[in-house]
Every structure is written in structure tokens, then in C-alpha cells.
């Protein structure tokens, strides 16, 4: 049974999706999704435990051996990603029950959960597969379902947000496919491990260079690195709360994983950093992204949108770590993938609580909520502190490694910049905190209170995780370091 | 009890004390009793710990493995013990005072006030007993955040603005400089531990040492070295007990304590004196001392005048540390104590005047000595200690700092000390003169009397400490001398 986990990880949610459509009555679709998601987490945890010693699991799908068949290959890095995706989903789903009832018409609930499961399938598949074309298939599964999910947002602008994402996402996926096609043309294989062996002699080939350009441009679009982030703010702002929380914590992160997988494992670090000036390009984009997106975030009137811009900035931090091209930098990126998933997950669940209790996420609608919704606002404060990177929160640990990596690389100005941009985060977080705790609500404001426990508990599980992983860092840092060494070792 | 257990208790007692304070929201008398009992317990823990440390124990306790190679841990040594004793001892006094003040002014949200006060004290204990550089940074930040709700207690526009400056300056200096310094030391020395004599086995260039030291001197914004001092006057919007304990003792002393600690246990005074890397910061501290005193001269608001006086006095300690010799370290440690006693007295008086008469500026104080003779007498004694005259604590610490200046061969700094003594007399004594010798503006019987009894009791205790540290200076000097291995 355990030997089949790599396949079941993806197949289970895939089969459950049509099941939701068939068994559409009442809470059944939600319940199926919840059980599947928890099962996926249990499987991901088992897989991570199995590869924690640095070994790899290779699974031939359908019994067809690679390179003919599709190979699923699990190592520390993608097992870590599987845990992040399945874990976020498992925490978000208990929250989803009431939140979805409030935000989505009842006759579409089964469609929502069906789509959600497909999204989960796609993201888990992207993380686990060891086949370049199979990656494209899963990108499409996750993207198409997420366009539909975003379009289910209450606001009519959700439709145009979904459409923009659809156009940009399709461009990204197409670029990726072109790149994969090119390397297939020159190497004759789609299996990643095979590609890694056949590409080095072809480093000077223009087809390989072009392939790398297409693949990385496509992935950078999906992971929303500045200036390819334009789809993200609207998509996050207008999507249903649950979708935003899940996507913000996982979708861009899996795309970053793919960038690392293709950069280090498939193409190889020598190619990426010596032949192509990836380090410099990524550095420039990452810095521009953090500074500009953080600044833009300060001026947002809608807190959900503010957090979306903050996500663009945080993606900049993750890519910054990648650009150092050293183990510490890569560790910083991987740790931040985890920590940011936890932090942003918590904050977007707070936005879900706001949407449930208040019905709006504008800055002024926070007035007086420090007293009226104490649990919700306390979660916002702690999540915000983690976003800033205050010690004893998860965000601090990321920042620690990010600065340390820059110092090791000898990039002093970058180290200073990382610290300085955290101050921008202080500005955008504190703006909201001040309104929540110091401004009195308008006289005609309706009575509001904390949402029911089924919303508060998942929010606080993630908020608690922000603090827990800020104090006890051995779990994320341990896996991140191991994965970073695996990637660096495999590349050189 | 083992010293390790005491160390842990020093952190846990104030945190645990916050729980009954929250639960007793509706029973103010019991709630205040909880604060007092917690404060007394904490002081007893600190005394027990102090006697162990003076007996030669150096307990350590790892709280969390945190980042590999950089655990969050507690550790006690003489300097931390001094700070722990002062902060916890004065917490008892301040709690007595708070009861009179908060009830006298009928302040709102008193439960929140006492709760965050307890949490702030826990953070202070964490700073005092931080076992390595990263732990020091962590507790330092915790202290900034836990005091924010106290600074903004009144919740009005002025409090919000003050809170913004407070948090803005403290967070930005600590994240941009202090944290950077910690990371640089970790990169350069491979450790964040505190070691007597410093952590650098292979000393880096003088320029690099000076640059790192700059990150700490300016990054530890709580030490109030100019130009990062503005948070302190801004914090004066807080209720007076907060200004008294936190912004004359716990928070600002956490700043200078950290500077002394880093100077001695991270850089090492031998390294600093042999390279001369700290010399430039003598001048930075000297400039802060003089400029802040001159600004204090021009303040009419009593609490603001005291705040600038604090900025000036804090840099005495920074200056003492930057002398990088034994007498300087001892003098700095003693000044942490003596300034704490003197300045808390002055803030208590400012609060007493405010409670009794609602007066906040120096010019309103004409003849107030007649209505409030006890308060103004205490004020006079506190002022004498801040100026540094015998028979008060201020004289003892200034004596040692002067000794350090002579040992370091810095005659110019002796000049700075003399000038600033005159300046502090110039901004404090006129208040005494106004209060006792000028006639009240409105003729007739005074409209108010003395402050409430609990305020006067707290004042008496603070003044007693000021005298005690002069007449029985030996124990304090012995503890301080233990930092540098006994002089």
C-alpha cells in the first residue's frame, strides 16, 4: 500500500473530483474533499518521512518504466512541497465549510469542491512528477481549475480577474510547453533524470538556451515574479476567501519549486549560473519586486489587495535567495516558501473571517475591530508580525537566512536592502493595526463579533504555526537545508 | 532551588503573573494584589539568583534550539544580575505607585495596563538574562512590542502619533542595524555566544570592528544615542508609571545594558582598547550628552525635560562602555543603577504633581512646594543624584566613570563630564527654585494638597535607595566589580 502512495497522492483527489459532482447533496462534497485532503497530507507526511534520510523514491506510473513511461520521483525537496500543499489544504478545508456557505450560492457548492479537488490534484502532481511533459499537464489542470475557482468570487470583478489570469496563465503554460518541446527535440527524452544526463554536452546549443528561456519565462509568469505579477493582485483580491488562502500559500510556491527543479536538476547549476546570467537577472528582478510591491502595498485601500501585493514582494524574497546561488541562500528560499505559506495562509484566513463577519476587507472597515473581534484581530497582528519578520515568528527565521546568505556571498548592499524592506512591511501592517485598535467604528456600523469557531480555529492553527515555527525551527530548516544541499550537490 | 530553575523562573513569574491579572478584571483590588505579589516574587527570585551568581555560579538554560547553532537561551552573570535586581525591585515600588496614580487619574483599561506591564517585565528579564546575542535581540524586540500598548494607552491621536514614533524608531534601528550587527558577528566569529574577553579569536580589521560596533551603538536604539533618541520624548505620552519604570529604568536601561554587554562579552574591552575602534563613539556619546542637556534646558513640559535628561544620562553609560577599560565597565554598571533610582524619583514626582494638581509644565509649578512639600523635597534629592553630588547614588557612579576616563587617558571626556554636570544642574535646580521660592500665581489657599499616600510611599522608597547606594555602596560596587573579574 505504502509503495503506491506516490500515485495515490495524485489519483485520489483526481477521482474524488467527479465523485463530488455525482454526490452533490448537502455537505457531502465538502466532507469528501476534507477526507481526501487529510489522506493526501498523511501520504505526503509518510513520503517525507521515507526520504528524510536523503534517499529517493522512484515510482513508475502504470508499471511503465522510465523513460518510456511517466516516472514519479520523490526526494526531500518535493516531499517537502507535497506536505506544504496538502497541509495548507487540510487546514483551510475545515474553514471552508461555513465560509463557502456564506460566499458561494448553494447550487454551486459541489462544483466548487470538485474544482478545488482538481486544483489540489494539479498542484500535488506538479510537485511529484519527474516527467517534463507531465508537469505541463498538471500545470494546466491546476490553472484551469483555479480560473474557475477565482471566477466564483462574489464580486463581479472576479470575472475579469479570472480572465486576466487565464490569458497570462495560458501564455505562461504555452511558453513552458514550447521550452519542453525544444529540449525534447534535442535530447529525445522527457524524463527529468534523463534530461539531466543528456543536456550537459548540449549546453552551447541555441535550442537549449531558447528552451531555458521559454521554460523560465513561463514559470516566472506562473510564480508571479515582478514584473510578471500583474495577474496576481486582482486574482487574490476577488477570489473567494478560501481560494485566496489556498492559492496564496501554495500555487506560486509550487511554481517556484518547478523553477528550482528545472534550474538545478534538469539544466544544472553550471548552466544556469555560469552560461546564463540567471543570478544577476533574478537578483535585479527580485530586488525591484520587493521594493516596488512593498511600496505599492502601503497605499492599498483594500487589505486583501494589500496582502496580495505583499505576496508579490515576498516572492521577491524567495527568488532573491535563489539568486545567491549558494546553499544558505537556497535554504533561505525554501524556508521562506514554508514560512510564507504559513504566514500568508493565516492572514488570508483572517480576511476570510472578515468577509464572513463584516463582509468587507477595506482598511476603514477594520475600525474598532480590535475590541469587537479580538480573536480575529489578534491573529492579524501575529500574522503581520511574522510578515515583518519580528523575532519569535516564522518570518524572522527566513530573514535570518536571507541576510546571512547575502553576507556569505559578499553582497552587503543586498543584506542591507533585505533588512530595509522589512521596514516597508512595518508600514503596511501597522496601518491596518492602528485602524483596528485605535479608530472608533462609525456610528452606523452594524454590530459585529468574532466568527464561529469553525473559522477561528483553522485561522489560529496557522497563526499558532507562525509562532511555533518561529521558535522551533528544526523542522522546516532541517528539511530546507537537506533539500538545498541535494539541489546544489546534484547540480555541480 | 538550582540556579537554572531560578533563571527560568525569572522569565516565567511575570508571564504567569499576567494570567491572574487578566482573570481578575472585575476585582481591581485583587488584581492589584496579583501585580504586587508577582513583583515581590520576581524580586525574591532575582535576589536568590544574585546570591548564586555572586557565589560563582554561571547558570545557563536553553529555551529553544531555534536556529541551528544559535539557540534561544538564558544565562546569568553579574551585569545581568544588577539589571535584573534593579528592574524587578523597582517594579514593586512602581506597582505601589501605579495603584495611586491609575486610580487617582481614573484611567481606563487598567487591566490591559497591568497585563502588558507584567509582559514588559518578563521581556526585561529576558534581556537581563539573555544567554547569547541572538537571545538578547529576541527579548529586546519583545520589549519594544510589549510596551507599545502602554505607550499608546490613552488611545487618542497624540498617543497614536507617539506610539508610531516609538515603534518606528525602535523597530527600524533594531532591524536595520542591530540585527545586521548580530548576523555580521555570527558570520565573522562563527558564534553568537557571550564570552568574557570577546568572541573574535582572529581579530578583524579595525575598520570592520568599528563598523560592527556602530551597528550596535546605533542599532540598540533604546540606548538613545543621537540621532536615534526621538522615540523617548515621544514615549512621554504614556501614563507616568510607564514613563517612570519603563522609560527611566527597564526599556532605556535594556538599551544601555545591551551596549555594555555587547562591548564586554562580544567585542571584549582588550580588543577595543588595543585597536582604538571604540574611540569615535566616545565623541558620539559626548555629543549626545551635551546636546540632549541643552535641549532639556529649553523644555517647559516637565516630563519632556526629564526625558531629554534621560537621553543625556544614558550616553554617560555608553561613553563609559566605549572607554573599554575595567573602571569604565564598572562605572557604567553602577550608573545603570544610580540613574535608575534618581530618575524614577523624578518621574514619580512629575506624576504626583499631575495627579494632585493636573499641572504638566515647569512654569505652572510656582510655589507648589508649599502645597506638596514632601513631593518637592523628594524631587530635590532625585535632582541632586542626577547631577551627581554626594550624598547620593549619582556621585558613586560618576566617580567610577571619571576614574575610567582618567585610566583611558581621555582628558577631553573629563571636560564633557564637568560641562554636563553643570548643564544638568541648570535644567533641574530651577525647578526646585520655582517650586519652593517663587510665589504662587493665584493668591489664597492652594487648591490641592499632597499626592495620594501610595504615591508618597513609593517616592520614599525610591529616595531611600538613592541614599542607600551612597552610604552602603560596597555591595553594589562588589557586584559590578565581579563583571570584570573583581578589581
Feature tags:
heterodimer, A: 492 residues, mainly alpha, two-stranded antiparallel sheet, 2 strands, 77% helix, 2% strand, B: 487 residues, two-stranded antiparallel ribbon, 19 helices, globular
Walk me through what this model shows:
The complex is a heterodimer of chains A (492) and B (487). In chain A, 77% of the residues lie in helices and 2% in strands. Chain A has 492 residues and is mostly helical. Chain A has a two-stranded antiparallel ribbon. The longest helix of chain A has 31 residues, at 157-187. In chain A, 62% of the residues are buried. By secondary structure, chain B is mainly alpha-helical. Chain B is built from 19 helices and two strands. In chain B, strands 1-2 form a two-stranded antiparallel ribbon. In chain B, helix 13 runs antiparallel to helix 15. The longest helix of chain B has 33 residues, at 157-189. Chain B is globular, with a radius of gyration of 21 Å. Classes of the chains: A mainly alpha (492), B mainly alpha (487). The A-B interface holds A 385, 388-392, 397, 399-400, 403-404, 407-408, 415-416, 419-420, 422-423, 426, 430, 434, 437-438, 471-474, 477, 481 and B 64-68, 72, 137-138, 141-142, 145, 152, 155, 160, 164, 167-168, 171-172, 175-176, 179-180, 183-184, 186-187.
In spatial order, strands of the major sheet of chain B run 1-2
The pLDDT mean of chain B sits at 87
Strand segment tally of chain B: 2
The total of beta strands of chain A comes to 2
First-to-last CA distance of chain B: 30 Å
Overall spatial form of chain B: globular
Radius of gyration of chain B: 21 Å
Helix content of chain A: over 70%
The computed structural class of chain A is mainly alpha
H/E topology pattern of chain B: HHEEHHHHHHHHHHHHHHHHH
Structural class of chain B: mainly alpha
The percent range for strand residues of chain B is under 5%
Largest sheet of chain A: 2 strands, antiparallel
Please report the number of helical segments of chain A: 20
